[in-house]
Design goal:
This protein is of the alpha/beta class. It has helices at about 15-25, 35-50, 60-70, 85-90, 110-115, 135-145, 200-205, 230-240, 240-260, 295-305, 335-340, 355-365; strands at about 50-55, 75-80, 95-100, 120-125, 150-155, 160-165, 165, 175-180, 190-195, 210-215, 215-220, 265, 280-285, 345. The strands form four sheets. A seven-stranded mixed sheet has the order 1-9-8-5-4-2-3, with helices on both faces. Strands 12-13-14 form a three-stranded antiparallel sheet. Its EC number is 2.6.1.33.
Length: about 375
């Protein structure tokens, strides 16, 4: 039997993509803000309900650039419950990450813990919309306004998510999306920064192109973060199918919720009351009452060709380059550590069949 992966990219028919490749070959414009790059920025703004977006070759470079674009210095408050790119981007800018515990119900940074972590050196907050569930953006913004802090959201999971009928990407000073192959919407590799005004977008666009302002002028120590025309073209094809893809994920999510809710020792997180979801992941918590430990269930599924993922384990704060930071102590992050030890993300992707879904659920039941 073939392996059932945790996720896999949705790939439209090759025939849809070929005309874009032919056009790229004909006009010989491969990168540097080409026509497909410009078209994708325009169409993404329309689909996402935002005004200013800058495409990148990946979301990690976008996170690094977002911090640089806002001239962040000193300390950045963030969550330990994320992919390492979140905190790596802080280190790459020569800044200090300060970890704050999560809300055990949402897996997102707990706003009630943020204020105690603020010091005279704090200049920004970098929360994560984990598994596409929105952070408490209103509480976070109130804290940021009170202390004069910037807010950069790692929105890698949050493509197409609306909070109270408004794009979640419109909150904070910036939001960063990931278009990696495993994401709901992908460009093979890619990412984007959403900002609030044209002047900031101009600075971002220069920073992702080495800081170049014109042929003779370099205004900042930028980086090479440009998205190629091939990646942008693939994004345009993907965008035609995104609504159908999310709807199919929704059906899988619904079946999981119905079937797993009756299994003792399996906790299925509640959906947000105020936001939609893009169903990018399906995390469950394996409690002590379950017949197996989390790691035992992971191995049992793997031995039956079902590839789940301990996402996020280990915590960022427990990795060698971070665990020496005072805020990384387990005592400071009890809920993040507990969640990391229990979480398991189950397979969810457009091409997951009903038979495969039934197999997964039955294996969990035992």
């Amino acid at each position: 039997m073939k392996n059932i992966p945790v996720t896999q990219p949705f790939l439209p028919e090759l025939d849809e993509f070929v005309p874009y490749l032919e056009k790229i070959w004909d006009n010989k414009w491969l990168t540097n803000n080409g026509p497909f790059h410009q078209q994708l920025e325009k169409e993404l703004c329309e689909y996402l309900g935002v005004e200013h977006i800058s495409l990148f070759n990946n979301a990690t470079i976008a996170l690094i650039t977002a911090l640089q674009a806002l001239r962040i210095n000193g300390e950045v408050i963030t969550t330990p419950y994320s992919f390492v790119a979140t905190s790596h981007s802080i280190l790459w800018n020569g800044l200090k990450p300060v970890f704050v515990d999560i809300d055990p119900n949402t897996f997102n940074i707990d706003p009630k813990k943020i204020e105690a972590a603020i010091t005279p050196n704090t200049t920004a907050i970098m929360p994560v919309h984990c598994y596409s569930s929105p952070c408490d953006v209103e509480a976070i913004q109130m804290i940021a306004d009170n202390y004069g802090l910037r807010v950069i959201y790692d929105a890698a999971h949050a493509f197409g998510v609306n909070y109270k009928d408004r794009s979640i990407l419109r909150y904070g000073d910036m939001s960063v999306l990931s278009f990696h192959a495993t994401k709901v919407f992908n460009t093979f590799e890619g990412g984007a920064i959403i900002c609030q005004d044209a002047k900031t977008k101009q600075r971002i666009d220069r920073l992702k192109n080495f800081g170049i302002a014109d042929e003779l002028t370099v205004t900042a120590p930028g980086i090479n973060g440009k998205m190629s025309e091939i990646n942008a073209a693939f994004g345009l094809v993907q965008l035609k199918h995104i609504s159908t893809a999310i709807e199919q994920r929704k059906k899988i999510d619904s079946i999981y919720r119905e079937e797993l809710s009756t299994i003792k020792g399996i906790t299925v997180p509640k959906a947000s009351e105020y936001a939609n979801s893009n169903y990018s992941y399906f995390p469950v918590l394996i409690e002590k009452e379950f017949r197996l430990t989390r790691d035992e269930l992971y191995e049992e599924l793997k031995n039956n060709s079902i590839l789940s993922r301990k996402y996020f384990y280990p915590l960022i704060s427990n990795m060698p380059m971070y665990r020496g930071i005072e805020s990384a102590s387990c005592e400071n992050l009890p809920f993040a550590n507990a969640t990391s030890d229990k979480v398991l993300c189950l397979p969810i992707f457009v091409d997951l069949t009903e038979d495969e879904l039934t197999l997964i659920i039955n294996r969990i039941r035992g």
